[in-house]
Design brief:
alpha+beta; 4-stranded mixed beta sheet; 3 helices; 26% helix
């Protein structure tokens, strides 16, 4: 998967495509917040990914949560929309709060996700990505003011 990501980044820098993405905040009062570690980039991230052709943001969020975490999303609340030019893309990212989740198949895409776990809010990992840290701070403050991811 790392080689594919490297090729994709090269393509994005040349073409600068318009892309759509989703990220999800899965929070549990007892367990904390769910973060994942990908196989192809360092750091802890919010679950999520790209919107596929014919999908809505909501459908993509549900699919990504199922694929990356083996979970089924019930109610999804749109928190905010962001713009990012990282990795050479012109990316519009919808951030959702997965208000209700249920266990799904439990199958996780091992080619994409190396680790997944809940972290208590006062014990978040040091190697969480800066954008993930910002989104969680906004979520805790109930204030989504930034426009850039």
């Amino acid at each position: 998967m790392a080689w594919y990501h490297a090729i994709a980044k090269w393509y994005w820098k040349i073409r600068k495509p318009l892309t759509l993405g989703v990220r999800l905040i899965v929070a549990d009062e007892q367990k904390g917040v769910l973060l994942i570690r990908h196989t192809y980039v360092p750091g802890w991230y919010l679950p999520g990914g790209g919107v596929e052709k014919g999908e809505s943001f909501w459908e993509a969020a549900r699919r990504e949560l199922r694929e990356e975490c083996g979970l089924v999303a019930g109610e999804l609340r749109l928190c905010h929309l962001y713009y990012s030019e990282r990795e050479g893309k012109r990316d519009h990212i919808a951030l959702f709060h997965a208000c209700q989740i249920q266990p799904g198949t439990g199958k996780i895409d091992a080619d994409e996700v190396r680790d997944m776990r809940y972290f208590l809010w006062d014990q978040l990992p040091d190697d969480m990505t800066p954008s993930t840290r910002k989104r969680l701070a906004e979520f805790c403050a109930h204030s989504f003011r930034e426009e850039r991811w």
